[in-house]
Amino acid sequence: MSEQEAAAAPARKAATGKAPAKEATPAKKAPTGKAPAKKASPARKTAAGSKKATPAKTTTAAKKATPAKKATTAKKATAAKKATAAKKAAPAKKAPAAKAAAVKASGSKPESQAARAKRAARINSALAEVYYYAHPELDFENPFELLVATVLSAQTTDLRVNQTTPALFAAYPTPEDMAAADPEALEELIRPTGFFRSKAKSLLGLSAALRDDHGGEVPGSVDELVKLPGVGRKTAFVVLGNAFGVPGLTVDTHFGRLVRRWKLTEQTDAVKVEQEIDDLLPESEWTMFSHRTIFHGRRVCHSRKPACGACPIAELCPSYGEGETDPEKAKKLLKYEMGGQPGQRLKPPADYPGRPAPPLPSRAPAAGPASGSAADSATGAATGAAR
């Protein structure tokens, strides 16, 4: 290079601007935005962080909300279960309307005489609706026949007695005829009723007493009747109430069992039972209350397993629940009229042997329980015990 060229080199460099270009390099880097980008990265991170934090917060809120939802669900489930249980329990609560009456009647506070009398009247009225045709179910045409039939009904059924008495009364129609009967012939005629020897002895004795002391007529007072052989107060009231129209209570096993079950008395002695029930009802109702109670005891309120679920007076009975309370099962326990079969609906007989048929009611019985079985005697299941 010549000296002139060497001297001109710095001037060229200055003219080309290389030196300023080097100084401008930082300026070139600035527009690239790398430094600001680096500074901005914390902001981006913050933004990213905030975006990431949002799901975290949501998750936390969700976690907090989950127990609340679970609690709400649990409460709803519990309420649903309670509602279901309440619905299921509803029928059980309805049936013990009787139980409520039971608690009220048999609670720690004794029932007053007035309250007991009122309840007895309601029971009598309810039974009258159902057993409007209640009557003595022994066949008879006069007081002597009823007296003999009642004596024979001890420890047997009315059906069996009614099957036996036609031949008996044909052979011995009057007290005089029966008093003169051959004991063995009489025993043979009444053999189907059971205990025929002791019953034959009673019939011979009472027939002789009627012939000798009463002119062959059956007396119309309790005091005279109970003096006859084999006749107790129960038999006397059967005869007085149904042959003479004299009011009286027939306290047989059915009657005594039911009035105790109804808590109308706690007495077990027949005479004391009679006295206490006499005080609860008007005299005019005594005879028919006996019939209705006996009908009910034979048909619905059985000794071992009463049909509580088919009972028309369940609401008045302090002993509701001693028997079957399910209505369908209770119906299967009902007993029916002579010749009737289980499952038949209540239907009174078209007529009664020896008596005109009663007028039919304008409507069906209120509760429609069963209409009686002859398997239990209405008037004589415990005649012997009453004597």
TrEMBL record:
Swiss-Prot/TrEMBL keywords: 4Fe-4S, DNA damage, DNA repair, DNA-binding, Endonuclease, Glycosidase, Hydrolase, Iron, Iron-sulfur, Lyase, Metal-binding, Nuclease
EC nos: 4.2.99.18
Binding residues for [4Fe-4S] cluster: C301, C308, C311, C317
UniProt key word Zinc-finger: no
Purpose: DNA repair enzyme that has both DNA N-glycosylase activity and AP-lyase activity. The DNA N-glycosylase activity releases various damaged pyrimidines from DNA by cleaving the N-glycosidic bond, leaving an AP (apurinic/apyrimidinic) site. The AP-lyase activity cleaves the phosphodiester bond 3' to the AP site by a beta-elimination, leaving a 3'-terminal unsaturated sugar and a product with a terminal 5'-phosphate.
Family: Belongs to the Nth/MutY family.
UniProt-recorded name of the protein: Endonuclease III
Species of the source: Streptomyces qinglanensis
The gene coding this protein: nth
